[in-house]
Amino acid sequence: MPRPIAFLILLACAACTTPREACISDATKDLRIVQGLVADTQATLERGYAIQTETRTVLYTDFCIGTGIRNGHFNFCNRAQPVTSRTPVAVDLDMERRKLRSLQRKERELKAKSASEIQRCELANPVT
Prior knowledge:
With 128 residues, this protein is of the alpha+beta class. The chain is built from four helices and four strands; from the N terminus they run αααββββα.
């Protein structure tokens, strides 16, 4: 799908969000982030090691599309391609357990805060 068309579809979908949905999404943003961190930390503890992700850009040389042969020579182009590698790394499991407990406390705090914010959003933007 060409990028301009994909962008327009994405823009149209974003415009479909109601004020109520946007308010609730904003009210739960921090909670969703902390829940993701809790899940990552739990997975690290279950595995016994962490996964370090590194993305770097690699340049590939390729034939330029649509150029063919000019003056008897092939034309080449460089294209940048992101490459992601995942490497297991050792972690201090006791520190990960402490981090998990801390994140779970923060998650409980944010659940309570989000619940009151969601109520505020529902009152300010009733379903019609």
